[in-house]
Amino acid sequence: MAMNTTHRHNGPGRGLLIAGLVLASLAARPCSADDPAYHRRWFYSAFNLQVEANADRLIDLIERAGKAGYNGMVLADYKFNVLDRVIPAYGRNAARVRESADRAGVEIIPAVFPIGYSSGLLAHDPNLAEGLPVKDALFLVNGREAALVPDPDTVFRNGSLEETNGNHFTRFSFQDDPGKATVADLEVAHQGQVSCRMRDTAKVSTSANARLIQKVKVRPHACYQFSAWVKTKDFQPNGEFRLLALGASEGGRPLTFYEGKLKPTQDWTRISVVFNSLDQNEVNLYVGLWGGADGTLWIDDLGFEELSMVNVLRRPGCPLTVKSADGATTYVEGRDYLPVADPKLGQVPYAGEFSFDHPPAPLRVATGSRIKDGETLKVSWYHPVLVHGNQVACCLTEPKVYDLLRDQARRVNDLLHPKTFFMSHDELRVANWCRACQATGRTPGQLLADNVRECTAILNQFNPRAEVVVWSDMFDPNHNAVKSYYLVNGTLAGSWEGLVPQVIVANWNSGKAEASLRFFADRGHRQVLAGFYDAGIDNFRQWDQAARGVKGVDGFMYTTWQANYSDLDAFGKAMRRAK
User: Fold this and answer.
1) Gap between the Cα atoms of 170 and 428, Å rounded
2) CA distances from 348 to 85, 351, 499 (A)
């Protein structure tokens, strides 16, 4: 999947919510005995309408979909987040798309509010990312600048892989199938004389895995980067490589979520992950393959380091504090040390996106400061984390997030005058760590419930007659609304309490379809089945069967993440024939 989430104070939008949603519910057309079961026959599309060729392609797709019986298109355009920055051609292209949709009888349903996948919001202010805390990192003052002092007990050993005993790499606590799945290669190396080769592991590994694992002491609530150099030849499938950090305490909480999409054949390339140690004193660091693969992967020159203030977040809910070593003195920014900012925060490679491969923000002593040369400081700050390569979530609590959501709702409404909005709350994987969220005393589920309630009110404020749809997963106890979801701090249970009954749920929980459909039906929600997922017509049959007898299922959406419309016509025919 792919989408979003946030929370906020009680605002004036709540009064408008009830009246508008009543109008929206009255406007919803129930199915008659002569109608297809799925009178909402939608398809999902992702196009950047600033590009004229994309608008042309979308117009062709709309015309085709209209002929195939579709009457709605969920349009996910990143530019909906930055309409204040688009060029004039964007408006002209959007108008052409609207005209074609009107001719084809296809309603345009804009996707708004990118919260789980929040780059569109963070393009306006990257400081609004949800931040994980670094606590009391030691800095040593040298002249006019203070630098991080790494913990001497944090040592990753034999990262060069030069220390071997036959095919065993020494210093590692575990190695899959030495001499078979993991081999000391004396002919190919990034640097030095040795690398770890993993060849045809699907055939030779007894566990279907090929990994090196090392347990390392860490400082709790610190930021670390784990990296490796990799090389491939005829390597398939290309998504089995991982860098993984697991907390070493009971339960082994995952701290990183990264599956590297390597090219089948590529020269030496550095890959890294960044994580926060949270409350852990030790972590298990894994590098290698899960599930086996064909072809060859080489790994070399593993690196592990504590990071200073790279992507330091600066907002009220993510305070930076600098204290004396004994904690007795809190130094003042602007008086004792110069203002701290990372100029590359949320700007690499594009606005709203993050990279950790650049120098940290400096901590410089101000003229006349109480901080003395040679002094040791305790510094605390907050940083974002990347999930699955590039996903960053915004904070659920900072008021500025809601200012941006209101601006987006107004601009999208003025652009398209939609009859339906699609809220992109989806796969919210980091939440409830920053001081703003913690200060509420509420669970992530409660914060998310507040958020979706407020988001619905915002849309209602700008378009009281419009219907509102949301993805199912973050409000489904059979899916992601659970305890210990990714890096969410606490349980997401109860998030569904923020969904007023008039909100339509786009249900994509194919793994537990029947339980999920009945859960939302029992709460009084109408539902659209978000099927296909590039899986063929059997996917429709499975969803259709699961929805039999479930009240309020009145729509189906052809949902493709790979722009695969090869089965569009077949699904359209199936939707019209279903009863």
Assistant:
1) 39
2) 18, 7, 35
pLDDT of residue 84: 97
Q: Which two tokens stand for residue 202?
A: 């699907």
- Residue 163 main-chain phi, psi, to 5 deg: -90, 110
8 A C-beta contact, residue 43 and residue 70: yes
Contact 16, 441 (CB under 8 A): no
Cβ neighbour number for residue 120 with a 10 Å cutoff = 24
Task: Render 343-402 in DSSP notation, one character per residue.
Answer: TTTTBSSSTTB----SPPPPEEBPTT-S--TT-EEEEEEEE---BTTTB-PBPSS-HHHH
Q: Where are the alpha helices (DSSP H) in 33-186?
A: 52-67, 88-104, 119-122
Tokens found for residue 65: 């979909």
Nearest by Cα to 159 from 302, 58, 297 = 302
Residue-level pLDDT at 28: 37
Mean pLDDT by 10 residues, the chain (579 residues): 33 35 36 59 97 98 98 98 97 98 98 96 98 98 97 97 98 96 97 97 90 98 97 89 92 86 94 96 96 94 98 98 98 98 97 96 98 98 95 97 98 98 98 98 98 98 97 98 97 98 97 97 98 94 95 97 96 84
- pTM for the model: 0.91
Please confirm whether the linkage preceding 114 is cis (ω < 30° from 0): no
Q: Which residues contact 159 (CB under 8 A, 6 or more apart)?
A: 301, 302, 303, 304
> Is the separation of the CB atoms in 289 and 209 below 8 Å?
yes
pLDDT for residue 7 = 30
Q: Identify whether 88 is preceded by a cis peptide bond (ω within 30 of 0).
A: no
